[in-house]
Amino acid sequence: MNSKAKLSKTSNPEPWGKNVLVEFEDRIAWVTMNRPEKRNAISADLALEMSDVIDALEADERCGVLVFTGAGDSWSAGMDLRDYFRATDNAPPAERARVYRANWAWQWRRLLHYPKPTIAMVNGWCFGGAFTPLVACDLAIADEKAVFGLSEINWGIIPAGVVCKAVSKVMNQRDALYYVMTGETFTGKKAARMGLVNEAVPKSKLRKRTVQLAKTLLEKNPTVLRQAKVAFKFVSDMHWEEAADYLMAKSDQAILNDPERGREHAMQQFLDEKSFRPGLGAYRRKR
Ligand code: COA
User: Fold this and answer.
1) Residue owning the nearest CA to atom 41 of ligand 1
2) Residue 78: CB within 6 Å of ligand 1?
3) Does ligand 1 come within 6 angstroms of the Cβ of 131?
């Protein structure tokens, strides 16, 4: 691989259209990994395009929620074995590191704490390196017949990148080690039972259920939603004292930065007007 050429930035004003497609519909940005002939294996070009796409969508007002899916019958067959592994095997260490960094940039460095809500809609095969963006997305809905696999052990490598770390965040140790060590595949239905995805639904209902979930998120106060998801992810690696202090600061930040003044309105509706009961639904947002 000529990694210098591969790592050059696209000049397209909208940085998608080749390895990544983006469509907007009612403030949902459908972000599609688009290498169906390679089962959406993640090449260096896809990684670079995806980084640019994610950056662009952060500022794009047509996008309130991102849904990541795959073209054809695959979500993603993981890292491209030819383009990422074989092609970089003999590259100088600095070049190899640069190509890997490009992938980490989008798969977790950006996605894990991305300011807008993210949903992985797993429409088919999901292998190896694809587990990292799957876990980094906030929520995940899968086709119940989608096939998942931590296949690395079957061809002599370990789930690296940060796959082991990613799965340890959402799967319990017994389940994770079982699949890391056996390389057996499992279905979307099983993935939901293990907590790797939120839900598994029949293929015919996958898009409808994903849209429904995205619309629920779009109804929420976006400032507070952003703070809540980012705070949740950061505190999981903190000690209790650190978490308490950080959450207090984050909570103040959410209140100060919220142009809708959601907390104040909710208090008013609950305490003064008696028009809102949290157990019966959301407060009336003033937008
Ligand atoms: N890297 C590079 N190329 C890949 C790939 C990957 N991870 N996964 C699939 N491809 C390529 C195949 O080499 C083939 O290319 P070709 O047409 O040039 O021969 C093409 O995609 C179609 O794959 P194929 O295996 O024929 O499709 P399938 O529908 O029969 O099977 C999979 C789909 C996903 C089950 C199978 O491709 C597979 O097992 N892929 C590897 C998954 C994996 O272990 N990934 C971990 C990487 S970290």
Assistant:
1) 77
2) yes
3) no
Q: Is the pLDDT of residue 54 over 80?
A: yes
Q: Bridge partners of 29?
A: 24, 66
C-beta 124 within 6 A of ligand 1: no
The CATH number of the domain covering residues in 3-218: 3.90.226.10
Q: Which residues pair with 24 in a beta bridge?
A: 29
CA atoms within a 13 Å half-sphere pointing along the CA-CB vector of 259: 2
pLDDT digits (tens, 9 = 90+) for 196-232: 999 999 999 999 999 999 999 999 999 999 999 999 9
Q: Rounded CA gap, 110 and 250, in Å?
A: 19
| Alpha carbon nearest to ligand 1 atom 22, residue | 38
- Whole-number mean pLDDT of the chain? 94
Pairing mode, strands 199-201 and 139-143: parallel
Side-by-side strand order, sheet with 118-122? 20-25, 28-33, 65-70, 118-122, 139-143, 199-201
**Tokens found for residue 206:** 């996958």
Residue nearest to atom 42 of ligand 1 (CA): 77
183 touches 153 (CB < 8 A):
yes
